[in-house]
## 1
Amino acid sequence: MISAKLIEELKNYGFELDFPRYYSIEELISQILKQKNQRLYAAIPLLLRKPIDMEKIQATSSAMNAFKQIILITKQIYKKERIDHGQIDQLIKMYGIKGKIPEDTFNYYHSAFKIAKEKKNRFEDEHLKTSIGQRQQMQMNQALETIYAPAKIRILKNIFEHKKLTNTELKYYYKAIRPISKAILNETLRDYLRIIESVKKER
């Protein structure tokens, strides 16, 4: 049975997989090899972008042989994807890793690598957008609180969310809120304030 902790960890490397983290890449690879699951083996080329110490990999001799084959596959993938494979070359040379990789095996690993890489990139892009969005929202809220009273902010929010205003709110909007909003949107005023902000102030 595949470890739930292991599956969750692999999400960080693009596999559709927030549990406690493993302490090292070597431990993570050892856990994958322990599962004896070919689908999980396909995650290893993603992990090998970080330097590893082969001596710290804990696996049976058969699992270690499978791992060495994956190292050869990883080199081919990195070459094809134009990823630096210097450290992979060092492992191959240091441990005398040799062998031929069947085309269908390579294609399977390469396909899994590309899919995971795309998912990881999408996840990072979405995470970045969310972070930016949250920052911008916080800055906008701070700006609104500087300019408008809480009652005015509530009416602006209702308008933004397309909620219907009462007659009293509507009158208040046109009388007390809209003039301020129009002044803020005035380009001449904004240019004027930009110049003031850019000038060095001395006491």
## 2
Amino acid sequence: MRRTIVLVVVAALAALCAGCGVGTQSNARLLDKQSIPYGLLSPDSTTTSTVAVPAAQVTVYFESSKGLVAVKRSISAGATVKAALSELTKGPTAAEASNGLQSPISTVTPLTVKRIQNGIVSIDLPSSFASLGGQDQIIAAAQLVYTATAIAGVTAVTVLIGGQPAQVPAAGGALAPGPLTRGDYVGLSAG
């Protein structure tokens, strides 16, 4: 008798649990509106929220008639040398270009960060950097140095061309082996 009661209770529990569970089906099926709980189909029952992506800013430097000028760019990632160089290679926007901004370094891509050690960033440039004309090459090097050193913790730049250490012209035109600092381009900044 006790065994029969236990079997009946187990069978009742199994039936109860089976009725509460979500059934399985092999395909999706369309529900009619009558079987959807009240209020779930009304337009005001859904809420949406916008999650703001935290934006960072980097400062890039472009050439103007008065010298290098700082331009702030908003980015979705962190303010890193790589992010700043990415923005620099995009060059001036149409509005910035209409205001006279230019970017010799933007014609030389890709710019690749090789390493950052003790505040010195090593940036690899393609061999096309050597084909920039005299003053354009000086401005391009200054853009690179100013943009990279605008990132916290970066104090100087070593330039590589094709993976090899290179000498690039400083403000006066003399070749400098680096590491290059803003001091090498004194007088080229507009402010």
